[in-house]
Amino acid sequence: MDKTVIKSPSYVFSTDLKAESHARVVLIATIPGIAVSIFFFGPGILINLIWGSLSAILFEATVLKFRNSEPVAGLKDFGTLLTATLLCISIPPYSPWWLITIGVFTCIIFGKYIYGGARRAIFNPVMISYAALLISFPTQMTSWQLPHNFSETPTFFMALKACFAPEYFDAKTMATPLDILRHNKALTMNELWTAYSQLGYWSGKGIEWISMTFLASGIWLIRKGLFTWHVPFSMLLSLALVSMLFYDYGSSTSGGSPLFHILSGGTILAAFFIITQPSSSPRSKIGKLIFGFSIGILIYVIRWQGTYPDGVAFSVLLMNFATPLIDHLTRPKYLINKDTA
Amino acid sequence: MDVYALILIAGLVSHHMLEKNSQLNIFPKLSHPIDKAIGFSFTITFIFVFSSGLIYPLYKYLLFHPELKFLRIILIFIIVEITTRAIYLFMQNIFSSASKESSPFPPLVLVNCAILGSILLNLSNNLNFLTHITYSLLGALGFSIFLIMFAAVKESTAYSDIPIPFRGLAIDFITIGVVAIGCTGFLGLVN
């Protein structure tokens, strides 16, 4: 008995016993991206990860104790560590400790356990906490360290200081590519590229290579059979299509190029690691395509017109909310019960 | 005036409706909340548009005098009440099987509040008749989409192992809070 299918109206899920190893595989797939991030931005992300994982384990153990189940049993699947890792990758490196702690707390409690565990979560836990942090602490959430060829890379000790004594750490922050695009609507794209040296070939220096690495890991995960291509590629395709539609190759009021949008912000990370989470994405293939397409369009709309720097978290949350309805509309025919209708 | 704000308000109100209605059901798990929500949203859209169309000329040509302004809330209440009752009687005569328990009618007070709020907001913008009706229709549609989505979410959380203190109302409010966080992304879209 490795697969139990429980039938309920508009909702079919399978209790997959291999979930534990799935989380471990995804965790392994994040390692190249983390390594590239350390190469460009220094060891800040490592401190984020260590502190984030420690607090995640602490919160998880506490919750499991309150829920009267064995603390160790719940920690054995790597789901908690994966959630904390994804959050710590999304938030800027060299974040203060309280930011990480609040983020992880929101993740574990409001994202996961209030809805009865990771497999029944309606919303993606990482995106709930990212959006909540972005609204509550906009300054901390948008201060990215300059990549290594602009200033000296901070040492491990400096990274510790940035985390636990942020007032003694003088951060050399930069505006992210999306911020640059948002605040310079009068300049053309060529002028932007000469005015801001932190822009690389297609998007920000460093950020574009981290995105590329996550793209490679994501394709590896698809090859391993953890999820299908439908959700990530439909999202990337719709984002590329919409930005191509509005982009006129010159002015920055028309939004960036498709490659700029795909390689900046958290687009690739969200496409392969966030929105593929099985509990909060639709089950049928058509549903997955609708889900991915809508997220891409929403991301573009929020990036282009909204006041927040990145629209990924908000659009993922909104589409997560729509997921049960998509599931209901695209359910297979044998599940439509005519007797009770 | 932004439609998103209206959607959010509508969401908060729709939650109350679902809650009130679920107590009426004898077998909440056997019935289909999504189908019921679709029924609700049709009725609500109709009442919204119809009653705001009725209120507009009265407000414009009868109650324009400042000393009569205190009457407008009572007037809106009466008109919404009349519309809802009329539709209900009409439906009851056509579909004799529609009993009171299974009728797709939301509690009157809450509809009144929602319609009152949106109509007063619309009227204070000094719109012309067509724009006013369009706004009402859009508001009602936003309301309906949120209502149906929320019914689907409620259906899927009904089978989850939610901690006991958070069951029922609490989890619904948390869900609406998270959706509100998602909707803040639209800040700046409408000035």
Reported for the largest beta sheet of chain A, the result is: 2 strands, antiparallel
Q: Number of helical runs of chain A?
A: 17
Going across the biggest sheet of chain A, name each strand in turn: 1-2
Seen as an oligomer or otherwise, the chain set is heterodimer
List the helices and strands and how they pair.
The complex is a heterodimer of chains A (341) and B (191).
Chain A: E1 5-8, E2 11-14, H1 19-29, H2 31-41, H3 44-66, H4 71-76, H5 79-90, H6 97-113, H7 125-136, H8 138-141, E3 144-145, H9 156-164, E4 173-174, H10 177-183, H11 189-195, H12 207-224, H13 230-246, H14 258-263, H15 267-274, H16 285-305, H17 312-329
Antiparallel strand pairs in A: 1-2, 3-4
Helix pairs in contact in A: 1-5, 2-12, 3-5, 3-6, 5-6, 5-7, 6-7, 7-17, 12-15, 13-15, 13-16, 16-17
Chain B: H1 3-24, H2 33-61, H3 72-94, H4 108-124, H5 129-157, H6 169-183
Helix pairs in contact in B: 1-4, 1-5, 1-6, 2-3, 2-4, 2-5, 3-4, 4-5
Question: What is the structure about, briefly put?
Answer:
The complex is a heterodimer of chains A (341) and B (191). By secondary structure, chain A is mainly alpha-helical.
